[in-house]
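for the writeup, i need someone to sanity check this before i put it in the appendix. the sequnce is what the collaborator sent (i think, or maybe the updated version? ugh). structure was predicted straight from it, no edits. if anything looks off just tell me and ill rerun, i have time this weekend
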Amino acid sequence: MFVAQQPLPAPPAGGAAIGEVLIALVISLGVMLPVGWFLVRERAGKPTLIGRAADWVASKDGLPRWAGLPSYLTITSLLTAGFGVWWDVATHMQAGRDEGPLANPSHYPIFLAILGFFSAGVISMGLAKGDLPRRTFRIAAGWHAPMGSMVITAAGAIALLGFPSDDVWHRLFGQDVTEWGPTHIMMIGGAVTCVLGIPLLFAEARQIGAPGALGFAGKLRSAIALSACIVPFAFLMEFDLGVPQFPAATQFIIAGFLTGWIFTAARAYFGPGGALLAWGVYIGAHLFLLGTTALLEDVLLSQFLLFLPSAVLVELVALVVSPRRGVVFGVTTGLVVGTLGMTAEWAWSHVFMPLPQPLPASALPLMLAVGTAAAIGGGLLAGWQVRQLERVAGTDHTTSFDGFESVLRRGQLGFAVRPGRALFGWWQRRQAPLPSPERGGVLRRHGAGLAGMLAFIALMAVFAPPTATGGISGTVQLSDVTYADGRQAEECDGEAKCLARVSVTMTPAGAADDAVWFYALAWQGFPDDVEANVPRDPMSGAPGVMRVAMRPTGTPGEYVSAHKLPFYGNWKTLIRLHQAPTTHMALPLYAPNDPAITSPKGRQIVTGDGDTVPLMAERQFLQREIKPDVPGWLWTAAYGVVITSWLTLLAFYGWCYATAAYGAPNQRRRPAAGAERVPAGVR
């Protein structure tokens, strides 16, 4: 291995410049000051532009003013954020660090979207007047807000807090290039959980008898809102882009949990077709993200899991096990989704997913085991969530087709009314009656949902953190050495624009035999060479990233890259070894000198022909920007704060749902005698 001190221009590896921090502050004030002014005037009973807009929307969709407009703003903001994140993550994989947070245009839609759905929650709170649900959150004397509003606002708050926290994190610990960085999870996690407030808002609207929440059309609207809760699929993005930085088990855990949760919940809440409806929302969101990012030039496009087999399996299970059987239905769908559904996703990965997929068959038993455990957890959470929504909405489940018929006729689709009524009649006959109200303590009411959530958290705690092992090395041979323009070259020394086919002989020879993945990756190479002869990904044609298979030669322990790999400029080139369950190792081939990184990790690395290189923990190579001299207690404290804030937020979501379903009614509607004591914060 050859180490040099050649300086190359590099973006800063710490926090943002003060000027950019001030610009972000101005943007925030430009959004939040008008929202704050609206809040003051609305609570004073004075007319506002937002209030008039909410009333106009309410006149069209029949939902309360505190439910309709805020929900549509939340969904619009979420789609905008998704576009920005899919653009941003791909850009970082292709181009590396930013010159600053505002130097990357993809950050603007993300930032504005977070401001958007946080504002949506605040607006919903401000619009909460007149007829409100029985159980509300007391903000101040005479001011009560629906619980759905509080979920959206809390999610927006943690996402918004993620922006300054991200800058502080970079200043303390250095850059973190993974999507799963703690402060990144605050931003993305807040975005993908804010949608949990919408089905709760719609259930609260149905409780007060809002016309837009009743009938078949209202049920359909609520089911679509519930289906949108599948958006945490955003945490599968690094797998979709072919640069996962966490163990493969996490893909199956997240996929199993989401499909077991949302498809089960949608089928139980909506009735026949609910799981397929949820799948339609899932695939529609992905097509939107794929279509919008495809309009951008030279941006790496994500691929994605299908999830359709799991939706079909949930519908089939519902023909045998009644969805009203709660825990039994959730466990059954979880078992089927985690085994057959995840096996189908593994088969789909052979068709559509990028390297390092498809995973070898030898890895499948572990992946299905963790996927099944997660899917059962998702099924348990589904039963709990549906039960809360039904209790919030009320026990009257009669629906009519009249509202939906009027929509068809207004849309000049009168020919569809008769078959629609026939289909509606069949769907209505398949609805099971709502069980009698649950009695008993907290565990009886909420134990299944809590167990499902804890199962997911435990699985991620065990299988998400990458680990390392020692005693593995590789001897590298370079062949077919050329310059970027195709001319023959003598060697790759890190100076010239050189590419080479890489052969590696592993020691021990069987180190990669049963690997979950073993492939070559070159990434973050786009800024160095934006003219002709830019190496492009052999799978997608995108510049700045190359995902290349390592093929066995027939000699034990020897592999050769399917394509030539770059050894110059800003490229970071490595061979990735992932052993089950969590070992992540890297054989470094090339990395540039990075003046912004003051530690030895920032110096140039060039692995030459014939060099034998010990494999290192992959995180040390992929995240060279992380500062090595940070005391351990500071890492522990920082992660503790982030984890605690997230667990608190998840507990708050659960509290909002449970209080809306089981809490004491507010003071206006509380019976005069025998009323329960109102919990703190609730009226």
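The radius of gyration is 27 Å. The CA atoms of residues 240 and 252 lie 13 Å apart.
thx in advance!!
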